[in-house]
Amino acid sequence: MATQRFAHYPSLNNTPVIVTGGASGIGELIVRAFCEQGAKVGFLDRDEARGAALAATTGALFEPCDLCDIDALQSAIASLNETQGPARVLVNNAARDDRHDWREIDAAYWDQSMDTNLRHMFFAIQACAPDMARAGGGSIINMGSNSWWEAGGGFPSYATAKAAVHGLTRTMARELGGDDIRVNTVVPGWIMTERQKELWVTPEAIEKHRDRQCLKTLIDPVYVARMVLFLASDDAAMCTANNYMVEAGSI
Fold this sequence. Notes:
Strand order of the largest sheet: 3-2-1-4-5-6-7
Number of strands: 7
Radius of gyration: 17 Å
Order of helices and strands: EHEHEHEHEHEHHHE
Number of domains: 1
Largest sheet: 7 strands, parallel
Distance between the termini: 22 Å
CATH superfamily: NAD(P)-binding Rossmann-like Domain
CATH class: Alpha Beta
Structural class: alpha/beta
Number of helices: 8
Strand content: 5-15%
């Protein structure tokens, strides 16, 4: 593939941004992409070592936080808003696609999966939206997944949570549209993050997945970050309540 020439968005320069789960994987690429645009970036993550290292190399602000602790989450968001100004962009990125057998999970595991992959998104919106509205509006981007679109197996609680993200996006787009706040879902396919490569990428799995993609190039996380930038920018001013796929035409 030819070297990509990516866009610069003047509307993101000096814009306060908050990213959840920003210390690694797709989240790290999102943090770096916003920093390259000149945005004022704050991010949350429970991985203190990686978060501190990323903050040191990018200049982004890092708030260590377990997103399942809603009080801690909302306190961290308040701290970032106080330091860098009310967020005009919120990226609800954090999630974990842990594999599990539907016959073996119990109620505690199910609840933990919902906490990890869905619940914090609503409460991050709740913490950000009032100040975002008073600041003149903004963009909220929730990270979905094409796993449930494809009827993928091996992680039913994760797929259920990710399906619910789309409902959250649609209803909050209606709730917040009057305040000029846009809410969208980015829908990644199988993205080649470090974690995916370490845990689940095998030659057999890659061959099977290439057959499902219209484009045969494996998806680098940078392309998810580029879609997030577009939806955060003024270029996407009339985009809300919708899904934006980054899955190479996977079927």
